[in-house]
Automatic annotation (TrEMBL):
InterPro entries per UniProt: NUDIX_hydrolase-like_dom_sf, NUDIX_hydrolase_CS, NUDIX_hydrolase_dom
Organism ancestry: Bacteria, Candidatus Wirthbacteria
Name this protein carries in UniProt: Nudix hydrolase domain-containing protein
A Pfam entry, by short name: NUDIX
Source superkingdom: Bacteria
Keywords: Hydrolase
PROSITE patterns reported in the protein's UniProt record: NUDIX, NUDIX_BOX
All copies of domain Nudix hydrolase, residue ranges: 4-140
PANTHER family according to UniProt: ADP-RIBOSE PYROPHOSPHATASE (PTHR43736), DIHYDRONEOPTERIN TRIPHOSPHATE DIPHOSPHATASE (PTHR43736:SF1)
Recorded GO MF terms: hydrolase activity
Region called Disordered, residue ranges: 36-55
Signal peptide interval: none
């Protein structure tokens, strides 16, 4: 059986909530449907086009999925996963960037049921509990260690 390679890029879009004194992460939600058999919470990301750089994919996908224009602060790292689609094994590698929201250009969410700013501790729990392929709670924890230098 052949293995297909799938490359994606996305980001951890974060802000500091002054009123609540907590970092918030922008998460996306998908309900369980016939075509989507598992409810999920996840970070914005998507397929890298053949002529795109990882940063270009991340900026495009975050804009398309969240309605926000963002600034990339730095690369965080990669998550690898494997899944089967239409009888073929797919090896997926997703590159993640730390991103700051600059401007909301639309509040309409196209590919998801909702987008929500979630406090960091809750975001880690949701990403752990409702992951599909990647364990995005791991990249969120890595981001937190990089930015806040704690374990």
């Amino acid at each position: 059986m052949n293995t297909a390679i799938h490359r994606s890029s996305g980001g951890i879009v974060h802000r500091y909530n002054q009123e609540e004194h907590v970092s918030e992460i922008l998460l996306l939600h998908r309900k369980r449907t016939k075509d989507n058999p598992k409810e999920s919470w996840h970070l914005p990301k998507g397929t890298q086009e053949p002529d795109e750089k990882e940063t270009e994919t991340a900026l495009r996908e975050i804009r398309e999925e969240t309605g926000y224009l963002v600034t990339i602060e730095r690369k965080i790292g990669y998550l690898a996963s494997t899944y089967v689609k239409d009888g073929q094994t797919v090896s997926k590698q997703t590159c993640y960037f730390a991103c700051k929201p600059e401007k909301e250009i639309t509040d309409e969410v196209q590919e998801h049921d909702e987008r929500e700013w979630v406090p960091l501790p809750e975001a880690v729990k949701l990403l752990h509990r409702f992951s599909v392929h990647e364990e995005e709670n791991r990249i969120l924890t890595q981001w937190h260690r990089l930015f806040f230098n704690d374990v």
